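Co-fold these.
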Amino acid sequence: MSVNRRITLAARPVGFPKESDFLLSELAVPSAADGEIVVRSIYLSVDPYMRGRISGAKSYAAPVAIGEVMIGGAVGTVVGSKNPGFATGDIVEGMFGWQDYAVSNGKGVRKIDPSLAPLSTALGVLGMTGLTAYFGLLDVCDPKAGETVVVSGAAGAVGSVVGQIAKIKGCHVVGIAGSDDKLQAMKDLGFDAGFNYKTDTNYFAKLKELCPKGIDIYFDNVGGALTDAVIPQINLHARISVCGQISQYNLEKPEMGPRWLGMMIVARAKVQGFLVSDYYSRFPEGFSQMAAWLKEGKLQYNEHIVEGLENTPKAFIGMLNGQNTGKQLVQVSAPPA
Amino acid sequence: MSVNRRITLAARPVGFPKESDFLLSELAVPSAADGEIVVRSIYLSVDPYMRGRISGAKSYAAPVAIGEVMIGGAVGTVVGSKNPGFATGDIVEGMFGWQDYAVSNGKGVRKIDPSLAPLSTALGVLGMTGLTAYFGLLDVCDPKAGETVVVSGAAGAVGSVVGQIAKIKGCHVVGIAGSDDKLQAMKDLGFDAGFNYKTDTNYFAKLKELCPKGIDIYFDNVGGALTDAVIPQINLHARISVCGQISQYNLEKPEMGPRWLGMMIVARAKVQGFLVSDYYSRFPEGFSQMAAWLKEGKLQYNEHIVEGLENTPKAFIGMLNGQNTGKQLVQVSAPPA
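Predicted complex below.
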């Protein structure tokens, strides 16, 4: 391939993103200056957090500028290196963006051992997704055997791992997802129970039925009306890990909901927002434990792979719509044999 | 006095409590059985949490039953003892309720050294109120010098102490209260700034002005629209201590507000509900530190004392209406000379 196809942000989405908010264009394949590497991407990661990075609202990082290549994690092959830390042929993971080829100074780039697991896992269960589940559940919520854990977005990349880690810790795990196929996928991963929030719309009653001992931990990827139904059922010293609020990302104006801080006093409960990047110093611990669980067969993962860089905006929009089960990826070139 | 006047709960209030929700009656003065003491109350404590205890809603303790003496802390004199741990004449603090005389088995009753400070402080700055401020600020929020602390209900019994402890810790302290007199009282206690939420109704703009570096800590006694204005201005790793939600206690139906969990992710912030009773094992530390600060002149306190047991319901309703500055007390008999 002699060109670098790249997807840039064409417009800031209002409400739900459209494919026309992105633009595919071509440039020459870049070359490495001193200290740099050139990476040809194999898989791109498509994640809910990206919705925040293309909005104009205050967030934890500067938004992607109009005309800029869309940010995102990717795994790829080093095809050129003037950085002594990397050799041609190395498999690496980093924030390479939505493009075929990326230039990097190597900072924040992680070498991947291709013998360990399929390369795509470096973006999922053995990547930021897995660590998000790991730290967001274990560090924020400290689950104890016998506790009841509710996970929203439970069939998604993070939620599906959260539920499995909670099972490893001996918890009763209830997942909430948006289709019967997703429910089945959750059960196949070992979740104790779950419901389809699109068809079982009395969330409060359904949670009451599935969580007879109340809710000790809520790992929230979704927010909105699901959270409203969880909060009145939390137990003493409940912990709520706020990982995502995907139900709110595409609203044109903020949604209203019942106030519930008074219930936090009654339960002496904690709500904690977090980002995986805050755990950077503990990444080695997380990668090591997740790899061990994977090897022991205690963790499984689902992937939803779309082919072709040009389909990345569509895959992103589909993920925001909940069309994926497990980690949403885009394959942009063939993995090495 | 040959009778024991007692105030019982006559009806569960709907919305704002009325005096007719309470009933004054008389019984004989009780006497002590083996292991018991009889206490004649001097001061009764009147607190926001009592609103929750007379509602039918799920809470952290069983509600006061209709016909039962209203619960509450009091300080008084032991006037009869068949408990070897207490002697006639001891000054004690405990949950003696809204009555002249109470019988107790001595459990949870604390002896007060009357030489240390005025007896009324055993219900305020050197009592549960002071410890609520102490643990709710220091343990839940861990304030650091230079951080900005916002306190709602800042002229109240807890809020006024929270602000002073935050000043001891070197913070920039902004209080929110409901009258200009209260604002002045806060400033007299050393708060850096504040506003009257009844007259300055653009809470967001006012907080923006008074907290130019954003908000690191929010100690919330009030909730509602004040919280809505605080949350969008929290800094990275902000801590929110949920002590009370007095704006919500007397609503006939739950209030709606904008959803803000997404902002907790952006700021990686924590919201924690707490009750002082959860810190029971650390009470000695709290009492000792508060007494030391009081002695060193680093802590001051305001009291709002109403005379006469029969006026307790009125004092309670007035406190819910924000008529008190500092700790609301009812004096039911003369302190010892």
